[in-house]
Please model this.
Amino acid sequence: MSAIRLDGAARARAVHADTLQRVKRLLQHGITPQLAVLLSTDDPAARSYLKAKQRAAEAVGVLVDVHVMPDATTASIVAWIEERAADEHISGILIETPLPAGIDVGRVRQALPADLDVDGVGVSSVGRLTAGGSDAYPPATAQAAVSYTHLRA
Model:
């Protein structure tokens, strides 16, 4: 068996082009995808990573609403998730990590509805994926790795 060269840049361009076409189709139907993001940390790496994700989303036409919550509590994060989940304009929810010390990560993950959990880390998402469901978002890193298994020499 010969080795396959994994070209991450080429794969990223292909994913970008596919996503751009999907968003264009949504826009043609009057749907503007909107991602709600919660940032509750001052961690420079998290802020940098979020900026990169925001640029990528906006480059394909996804609106990104970043909510900064420096004094987050478990209750305030869960309330924020519930508010966004009830908003019909929100297409996805992303909780940027790391979360501050003292936050009950289990409760936060429990609050994430699978149909809006774009990182695939919520309890419902993990349960659906584990049960073989295709109606939940898989974690991005795992999905990227799996996508390479479909490459042919």
